């Protein structure tokens, strides 16, 4: 149970700091609108660093169902724990983004643009093209999961891949690189829980004038990362070390 708990806590911290920067940049009446894309990508890297550092020694700090799936496909994580990890991650994402809403409650009240409100919860494409949006998420998540396996010292033997607290910084730098280099087309969900959990909360929370939660797009930041994570695992099995 401690592993599930720390996946919940780590993912909650990830979303608190990650969606927190988005809220600070795009909502009305905040003090951070000038941070822009650089600020967003740096803050998401710090969010990853914090979540991984907290959870690494207890749960391995997946914080991402695509990472969990990739490690299971590669034989580095028990399939018996996959569903529990994914549930803990999604619930953690829901909780973390709810804390963002509480933090910026007055700014949410002052913002009436539907797209802006949704952007502080879930990702969306710069140009809506389902196939290419999917491809973007596959490539970004492939880079994440493939990189994580080597950062964590993965081999083709029977030893599990597990992040330790010292791996928090290189993983954070990898996420910053993905955000800066690959994040423009879709906002780089690269994590099904990061998108689905907050999108659920967008639908549930009493946001004035929020509009729909864009469920027509929601499968892309779920299926794309899962596909990218699985492909990264297969590539890892072929290439190894």
Helix and strand layout, with pairings?
Elements: H1 2-26, H2 36-59, H3 65-73, H4 82-103, H5 105-110, H6 114-119, H7 130-151, H8 168-182, H9 192-204, H10 220-239
Task: Explain what this protein looks like in three dimensions.
There is one protein chain. The chain is mostly helical. The protein has a single domain (2-239), classed as Glycerol uptake facilitator protein (Up-down Bundle), CATH 1.20.1080.10. Helices cover 67% and strands 0% of the residues. The chain contains 10 helices and no strands. α3 runs antiparallel to α4 (82-103), α7 (130-151) packs across α10 (220-239) and α9 packs antiparallel against α10. The two termini are 32 Å apart. The mean pLDDT is 94.
Keywords:
241 residues, mainly alpha, Glycerol uptake facilitator protein, 67% helix
Name the average pLDDT.
Answer: 94
CATH top level? Mainly Alpha
**CATH homologous superfamily caption:** Glycerol uptake facilitator protein
Fold-level CATH name: Glycerol uptake facilitator protein
Order of helices and strands: HHHHHHHHHH
How large a portion of the residues is in β-strands, by DSSP E?
A: under 5%
Number of strands: 0
Please identify, by name, the CATH architecture: Up-down Bundle
Shape: globular
Largest sheet: none
